[in-house]
Amino acid sequence: MGPDPNAVHPIDRLPRICFIKNTVTRPNIIVGDYTYYDDPDDSEHFEDHVTHHYDFIGDKLIIGKFCAIATGIKFIMNGANHQMNGLTTYPFAILGNGWEKCVPDLSDLPLKGDTIVGNDVWIGQNVTILPGVHIGDGAVIGANSVVASDIPPYTTAVGNPCKVIKKRFNDETIKRLLELKWWDWDSDKIFANMEILCGKEKLPQDFFENNM
Q1: Residue 103: C-alpha distances to residues 74, 95, 100, 201 (Å)
Q2: What's the mean pLDDT in 95-120?
Q3: CB–CB of 59/77 below 8 Å?
Q4: Is 124 helix (H, G, I), strand (E, B) or coil?
Q5: Number of Cβ atoms within 10 Å of the Cβ of 105
Q6: Is the peptide bond between 91 and the residue preceding it cis, with omega within 30 degrees of 0?
Q7: What is the pLDDT of residues 56-74, one digit of tens each?
Q8: What local confidence, expressed as pLDDT, does residue 106 receive?
Q9: How far apart are the first and last CA of the chain?
């Protein structure tokens, strides 16, 4: 039941929708099942939207399951960072011709670690995500945002710089959702509970207790 998680285009009539996991070639990009990228022009080249991602730095882009990522996404990785502990930030070394005598050590660069997007995250159009950011499960990132710092789970955040404008649920519900981890259910269980997950049916009082 449900779409094939190993398909590149899960909807035949909509080639703009692409399951990212089935197109990535870089070992330092890790994407969960059912997470899709929506691009009317070139949905199969999600990796082109992950810039400054160099093997020698070793940072990873990790995206969870069931995320919806809209057109124009840009992940800027740690390779974009310049040395900040000198009198200038100019990267002389990349131009060669003798200037490579000042190649910075990795320890000289302001590296911020892996970029991590949780599960069930919705990212709107033309969003830019900067190095080392962590976006929590269930978060919503508004269109045209620049995400420069961590976004907590189950919040809605917008702007440049991206800031949380509201929580999607109360604290107790967020706690229970993070414990529930519905995205780890098998497809049959998801299908059986889809009306509740999508708000088509009222949430039973014992829903969380029965599904932990």
Answers
A1: 27, 10, 5, 60
A2: 88
A3: yes
A4: coil
A5: 7
A6: no
A7: 899 999 999 999 999 999 9
A8: 83
A9: 22
What would the two tokens of residue 152 be?
């907590």
Tokens of 98: 């003798």
Confidence of residue 2 (pLDDT cuts 50, 70, 90): confident
**172 φ, ψ to 5°?**
-65, -40
Residues 6+ positions from 70 with CB-CB distance below 8 Å? 38, 123, 124, 125, 126, 127, 143
The two structure tokens encoding residue 208: 């969380």
The single-letter DSSP state of residue 109 is S
The two three-digit tokens of residue 26, written as one number? 């870089």
The 10s digit of each residue's pLDDT in 131-187 is: 999 999 999 999 999 999 999 999 999 999 999 999 999 999 999 999 999 999 999
Q: Token pair 């939207």 is at which residue? A: 49
What are the backbone angles phi and psi of residue 149, rounded to the nearest 5°? -145, 170
Under 8 Å between Cβ of 161 and 144: no
- HSE value, Cβ hemisphere, 13 Å, CA-based, for 32: 17
pLDDT reading at 1 higher than 90:
no
Degrees to nearest 5, angle at CA 165 with 146 and 63 = 50
82 is catalytic: yes
Q: Which position among 45, 52, 53, 82 bears the catalytic label?
A: 82
Three-class SS state of 73: coil
Single-letter amino acid code for the residue at 11: I
Which range has highest mean pLDDT (42-56, 73-87, 139-153)?
A: 139-153
